[in-house]
């Protein structure tokens, strides 16, 4: 029984979800109340997780649940970005009439699923967490049900995600069949000898996971879902599932399949290179900002995977640093997107940014910083993210990956520059509203300052991350 | 050494930029932000002069070194200067206030932002010349792209978007390979500290590839033929102050990089690729001089002449002789002054007549005598007449080249003649001759601030032309040291090979 203190965050979150559901059902028009309560519960949740963060390694429930440095760090950035996602989106969902009680509850349950995924040390627990988060995400994607694009994106996401979950499950069963266990550590012990069954298992599992983080060639859902979903949900999609999926990626590659890195390394390198190049090239022709950021996230995932391909602690840490900086950049970008409001309508095409700098200098400056950072230009945070990854990649003498990746940044720089060009060099259009809720402004300010001032003390994140060792 | 003087030099402009951010908005009377910028940049200039004064010219070590832990213990923020860097720093701090004074009626919108961009740019440029760590160097080197992109793109001419993109993408694609090389150096040697790398040396088998990676970045930035095409576009479209910064300082980053990194870190590779650099430099000198002859746009002509002059610089550096390298450094300083002056001069007539086409002008001497005089000095400086800084640079480079390879030196000398041809022809067509265009009559002579900026450039061009001693003195020890290390490494490496 004494083990329960370690999963207090998860228990707390489950109870609050059920409680909010009850409140929502019995109290009329309580949507805003629940939204705020959810936010508070996320803050408490963050405190609970931080409270546990001194734990080095605790196995729970027959070794099926693991709390270690990796899971703690990932949960902290997961819940932390969850709070900011809720803060930035609050006005948006009111304006487009989505302020229903289900919205925050779905977000919370999907966060719960992700937390279980992150901590899982067993195929079955992992799958349970994965499905919990996916089911909540299907509904969230189609939450704006009167909107054709939103329903389409929900359906598309559901069909493709179900397919990938099927593949994943098939991979899990193959792995189980050939290694005689569902426990990650046990699989590692049992799979010392090469066999085709486990190799196929790895491939299927990697396909399923690559789908979740929208890496090429399993990316086709991302642009449509990003564009169709309500923007606040898109922000959620762009950050939280990626954090969870990346940490599961790390977990799978470096715990059960650690002995078979010669089997999966080529796959990861291929996925990584394909994502970097495809994301960069495909984003060039986009007109919708959300669609563009979908392609950009594809290429960013390519860089995060490049770190994982190195089979070194340095590489894992660089990937984690990458995703941490990536999520801040996304928060900043979407905060800017939420500010493009005029007469209760949100604008999301690139042309809508035309000449923004004339009337909205601060907003434009933030976008400028974010876009240069996404392009990886020093001295902004995005450069350091890439720098750490390439540091790890070149350590393993994977020069091809490094050179392709860096040349892809040049291509990617082009479309980021195009947005900057439209903001700064093009003739101005109508003004946007300037009254925004405090949460949005704070998020934008914090994230922009983080990106801008990262170079002053760049070792902050790396020092925390350096505690995470898998090998 | 307690006071971090180099960091103050680097940071001061940025602090000034922050100040300007909080000055009153630029609508109507915008002077306050301009005065703040001017004050800050002049203070920085004085600080750098003080630095030159306390700088020990006989020492070959890096001075005023600051070393702080920065990137989680494995990469340090390290800055320091030797005799070579100090000249570039002074050039930077000298040119920046001139740019700021020259900002006037042409830039009407967002003057505040423009000044901020220039000051931030100054921070990055000084940073490049100070940094003693490859990663810090890369950071400053690349960061300069952001303000320059905005300066060209926001305040530029008609085709500004195209030029800004071309400038940004060309430079970035060259530089990413350098980043790979820097990281590779870190893993090969365990450090990116330049001083330590000088001591350790880099294994021969890696040198060629690493040299090429650095070369790809510097060649784009210099710019060398055939990757020079971004420069004419960027120059033509940038506002006057932007062109001045670009020509006077940004191009020098690459030349400085060649001396500091290509020669210092990869002596064997530099020796191997000498012929490549010679050939590219000679093509740049001859070909771009011929192209410059045929230009109808003044700024384009000067841009092509910049490529030719930088061709001399790369040629001089890779002669690996005392005269050659000293000449190259001198030529860079001289070109920094002369090209800045020429762009400012073009800016003067452009403001009055709103065209840069050469055939729209003629006979300016009769209505603008003062302008004609300063423009003549700059023309003569550009073509390298004895008594101007241009002569000393070219002369030393050719001396170095003759020592190494007579054929190369002879072809390069042709470039001097061509340079005289296009510069004098430009002067003749613009300033002398008949005044056919009646609209020109309304043009008035130099205003006070133009006299200040242009004469501020005339003085050093003539002074150091007649008396180059102070500059040569300052670089002599460092160049000698670089060459000694270079030869020592070369001999050592060859010995270890056998």
Structural notes for this entry:
The complex is a heterodimer of chains A (471) and B (498). By secondary structure, chain A is an all-alpha fold. Chain A has helices spanning 8-26, 31-52, 69-95, 102-119, 123-141, 148-179, 184-190, 196-212, 221-228, 231-254, 261-282, 289-308, 313-338, 356-359, 361-375, 381-395, 399-425, 438-453, 459-465; strands at residues 57-60, 65-68, 341-342, 345-346. Chain A has a two-stranded antiparallel sheet. A two-stranded antiparallel ribbon of chain A has the order 3-4. In chain A, helix 13 (313-338) packs antiparallel against helix 15. The longest helix of chain A is centred in the middle third of the chain and has 32 residues, at 148-179. Chain A is globular. Chain A starts with 7 loop residues before the first helix and ends in a 6-residue tail after the last helix. In chain A, 57% of the residues are buried. The model of chain A has no long low-confidence stretch (mean pLDDT 89). Chain B has a two-stranded antiparallel ribbon with strand order 1-2. By secondary structure, chain B is mainly alpha-helical. In chain B, helix 10 (230-237) runs antiparallel to helix 11 (240-265), helix 14 (298-317) crosses helix 18 and helix 15 (322-353) packs antiparallel against helix 20 (448-466). Chain B has 21 helices and two strands. The chains are: A mainly alpha (471), B mainly alpha (498). Chains A and B meet through helix 16, helix 17 and helix 19 of A and strand 1, helix 5, helix 6 and helix 7 of B.
């Amino acid at each position: 029984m004494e083990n329960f203190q370690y999963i207090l965050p998860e228990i707390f979150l489950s109870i609050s979800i059920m409680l909010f559901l009850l409140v929502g059902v019995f109290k009329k028009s309580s949507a805003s109340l629940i939204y705020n309560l959810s936010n508070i519960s996320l803050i408490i949740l963050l405190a609970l997780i931080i409270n546990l963060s001194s734990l080095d390694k605790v196995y729970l429930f027959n070794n099926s649940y693991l709390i270690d440095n990796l899971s703690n760090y990932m949960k902290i950035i997961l819940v932390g970005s969850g709070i900011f996602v809720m803060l930035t989106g609050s006005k948006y969902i009111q304006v487009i009439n989505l302020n229903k009680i289900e919205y925050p509850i779905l977000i919370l349950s999907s966060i719960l699923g992700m937390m279980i995924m992150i901590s899982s040390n067993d195929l079955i627990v992992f799958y349970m967490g994965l499905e919990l988060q996916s089911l909540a995400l299907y509904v969230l994607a189609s939450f704006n049900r009167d909107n054709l694009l939103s329903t389409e994106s929900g359906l598309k996401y559901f069909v493709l995600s179900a397919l990938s979950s099927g593949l994943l499950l098939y991979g899990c069963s193959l792995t189980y069949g050939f290694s005689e266990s569902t426990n990650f550590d046990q699989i590692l012990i049992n799979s010392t000898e090469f066999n085709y069954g486990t190799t196929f298992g790895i491939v299927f599992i990697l396909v399923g996971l690559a789908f979740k983080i929208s890496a090429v060639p399993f990316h086709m859902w991302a642009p449509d879902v990003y564009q169709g979903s309500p923007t606040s949900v898109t922000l959620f999609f762009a950050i939280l599932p990626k954090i969870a999926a990346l940490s599961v990626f790390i977990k799978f590659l470096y715990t059960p399949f650690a002995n078979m890195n010669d089997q999966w390394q080529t796959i990861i390198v291929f996925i990584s290179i394909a994502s970097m190049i495809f994301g960069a090239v495909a984003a060039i022709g986009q007109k919708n900002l959300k669609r563009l950021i979908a392609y950009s996230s594809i290429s960013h995932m390519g860089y995060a995977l490049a770190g994982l391909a190195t089979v070194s602690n340095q590489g894992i840490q660089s990937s984690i640093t990458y995703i941490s900086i990536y999520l801040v950049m996304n928060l900043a970008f979407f905060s800017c997107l939420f500010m493009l409001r005029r007469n209760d309508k949100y604008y999301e095409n690139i042309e809508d940014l035309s000449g923004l700098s004339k009337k909205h200098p601060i907003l434009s400056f933030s976008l400028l910083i974010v876009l240069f950072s996404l392009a990886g230009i020093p001295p902004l945070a995005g450069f350091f993210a890439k720098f750490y990854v390439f540091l790890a990649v070149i350590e393993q003498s994977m020069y091809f990956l490094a050179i392709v990746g860096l040349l892809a940044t040049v291509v990617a720089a082009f479309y980021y520059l195009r947005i900057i060009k439209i903001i700064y060099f093009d003739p101005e259009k109508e003004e946007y509203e300037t009254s925004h809720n405090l949460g949005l402004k704070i998020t934008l300010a914090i994230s922009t300052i983080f990106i801008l001032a990262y170079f002053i003390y760049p070792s902050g994140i790396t020092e925390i991350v350096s505690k995470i060792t898998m090998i | 050494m307690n006071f971090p003087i180099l960091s103050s030099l680097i940071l001061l402009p940025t602090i000034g930029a922050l100040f300007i951010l909080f000055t009153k908005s630029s609508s109507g009377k915008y002077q306050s932000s301009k005065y703040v910028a001017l004050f800050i940049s002049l203070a920085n200039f004085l600080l750098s002069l003080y630095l030159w004064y306390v700088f020990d010219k006989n020492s070959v070590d890096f001075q005023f070194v600051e070393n702080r832990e920065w990137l989680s213990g494995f990469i340090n923020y390290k800055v320091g200067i030797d005799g070579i860097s100090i000249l570039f720093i002074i050039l930077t701090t000298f040119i920046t206030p001139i740019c700021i004074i020259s900002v006037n009626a042409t830039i009407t919108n967002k003057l505040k932002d423009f000044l901020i961009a220039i000051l931030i740019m100054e921070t990055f440029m000084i940073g490049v010349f100070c940094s003693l760590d490859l990663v810090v160097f890369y950071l400053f080197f690349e960061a300069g792209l952001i303000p320059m992109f905005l300066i060209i793109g926001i305040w530029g001419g008609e085709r500004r978007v195209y030029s800004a993109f071309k400038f940004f993408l060309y430079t970035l694609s060259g530089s990413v390979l350098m980043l790979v090389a820097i990281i590779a150096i870190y893993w090969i040697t365990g450090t990116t500290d330049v001083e330590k790398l000088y001591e350790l040396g880099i294994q021969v088998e890696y040198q060629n590839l690493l040299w090429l990676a650095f070369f790809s970045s510097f060649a784009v930035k210099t710019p060398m033929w055939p990757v020079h095409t971004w420069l004419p576009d960027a120059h033509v479209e940038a506002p006057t102050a932007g062109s001045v910064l670009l020509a006077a300082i940004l191009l020098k980053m690459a030349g400085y990089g060649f001396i500091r990194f290509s020669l210092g870190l990869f002596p064997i590779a530099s020796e191997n690729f000498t012929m490549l650099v010679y050939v590219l430099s000679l093509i740049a000198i001859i070909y771009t001089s011929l192209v410059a002859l045929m230009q109808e746009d003044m700024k384009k002509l000067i841009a092509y002449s910049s490529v030719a002059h930088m061709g001399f610089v790369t040629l001089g550096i890779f002669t690996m002789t005392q005269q050659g390298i000293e000449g190259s450094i001198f030529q860079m300083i001289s070109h920094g002054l002369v090209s800045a002056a020429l762009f400012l001069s073009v800016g003067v007539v452009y403001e009055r007549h709103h065209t840069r086409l050469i055939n729209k002008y003629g006979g300016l001497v009769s209505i603008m005598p003062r302008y004609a005089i300063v423009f003549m000095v700059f023309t003569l400086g550009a073509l390298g007449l004895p008594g101007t800084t241009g002569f000393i640079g070219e002369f030393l480079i050719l001396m170095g080249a003759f020592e190494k390879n007579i054929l190369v030196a002879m072809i390069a000398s042709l470039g001097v003649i061509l340079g005289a041809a296009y510069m004098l022809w430009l002067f003749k067509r613009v300033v002398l001759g008949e005044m056919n265009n009646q609209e020109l009559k309304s043009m008035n002579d130099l205003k006070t601030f133009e006299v200040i900026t242009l004469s501020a450039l005339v003085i050093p061009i003539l002074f150091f032309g007649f008396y180059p001693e102070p500059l040569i003195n300052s670089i002599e020890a460092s160049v000698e040291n670089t060459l000694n290390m270079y030869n020592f490494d070369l001999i050592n490496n060859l010995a270890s090979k056998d």
